[in-house]
Amino acid sequence: MRVLVLGAGQLARMMALEAIPLNIEVQAFDVRSDQIVDPINQQVLGEGLQQALRDADVVTAEFEHIPQVVLEPCEQSGKFLPGSRAILSGGDRRIEKALLQQAGVASAAYAEVHSKAELEAAVQQLGLPLVLKSALEGYDGKGQWRLKQIEQIDAVWTEIAQFLKQASKKAKQGIVAEQFIPFDYEVSLVGARGKDGQCVYYPLTENHHVNGVLSVSLPRLAHPLQAQAERMFQLLANELDYVGVLAIEFFAVGDRLLVNEIAPRVHNSGHWSQQGADTSQFANHIRAVCGLPLGDTTLLRPTLMVNILGLDQLPDCVLGIAGVHLHWYGKAPRPGRKMGHINLAADSTNSLGQRFAELIALLPAEDFPELSQMQSRISIS
Ligand code: AMP
Questions:
Q1: 341 three-state secondary structure
Q2: Which residues sit in the known binding site?
Q3: DSSP per-residue codes, 164-217
């Protein structure tokens, strides 16, 4: 069995590593270079999407910002899971918001805006503050503006108009104005839906961001909002007739969840599952798209994940902490780039807290900003 992944980054690589013991081969299609590569070592295996599609039994994706010229032939191949509609919903906030409404899943009230007049109308309709988001290519807080006061409309729209002018002519960029949600915390649900429609869910994971980028993820056992999150997952996954791993990011407001966004793929907030669950999200995605039974998603032991941004080395002594597992992505370092992650596991939440403190003491503070403050904010036990 051969799986072709659209995108050749770390997510494809971690899927490939999990596919090896299942006797499943994973190749990746690098959308930018048009090359077929081995996602583990980036070795070039061939050229062109047509060849890649012919040679694959199943086609899937590790990212959602995929050009239409690539999506169309994938859909036509009849091998593409979770399918174009799911990918487009993850890659375009207008389609995503419409999907959420159609599935009857709660999210921040919104309006599409194309002009200053429409922005003024959105302020009337939704109130302030607003979060303005680019419809395409927005991730990790990029392509976002905050509008807090009515006096800022002119200045904010000038910036947005400039942004829209510079946008690629190929894809139709736009703006979604969303009500600002004064949330208590952010969680995500990673789950998988098989070809038979059966779903499995990992525990809700609490996510902590620094400058809009995920820094720490901590799965929570028996979270009071787990059942609500699973119901919303099912509504969305059924609406899309989804096959594979799907991640949903939520804002928690009191005892209510609102969807922030969906990711039609394995997700950074599910990386802890490599050490904390019997079957990781990567293995379950491969199982789902290949039509195999899904694996157990139960949290086996307290675990957390810390992202490594911009660095390609850590002191060796980090591995000396019991329960530490390093996952490097083999990428060239650039400031802020996701280079790897650390999974930390322990037999009890107390011990996890202690090991987290040991880990923070060994990590270079300048490369892990706010981790120490986060340690005091995150209640692990
Ligand atoms: P996103 O790229 O949509 O995930 O947004 C990045 C971050 O901005 C989120 O993780 C939130 O912390 C914040 N954010 C996004 N949308 C809203 C909103 N409607 N209300 C409040 N905060 C938001």
A1: strand
A2: 93, 133, 138-144, 178-181, 186, 209, 260-261
A3: HHHS-SSS---EEEEE----SEEEEEEEEE-TTS-EEEPPPEEEEEETTEEEEE
CATH 3.40.190.80 fits domain 2-80:
no
Please state the pTM of the whole predicted model.
0.96
Q: Say if residues 63 and 9 touch (Cβ distance below 8 Å).
A: yes
Listed in sequence order, the residues at least 6 apart from 328 whose beta carbon sits closer than 8 Å to its beta carbon are 308, 312, 339, 340
State which ligand 1 atom lies nearest to the alpha carbon of 180.
20
Does domain 109-179 correspond to CATH entry 1.10.760.10? no
Tell me which of 142, 260, 267 to substitute to probe ligand 1's pocket, judged by most ligand atoms within 8 Å of the beta carbon: 260
Dihedral sign of CA atoms 134, 140, 144, 149 in order: positive
Q: What is the pLDDT of residues 83-135, one digit of tens each?
A: 999 999 999 999 999 999 999 999 999 999 999 999 999 999 999 999 999 99
What span, in angstroms and rounded, lies between the C-alpha atoms of 108 and 66? 25
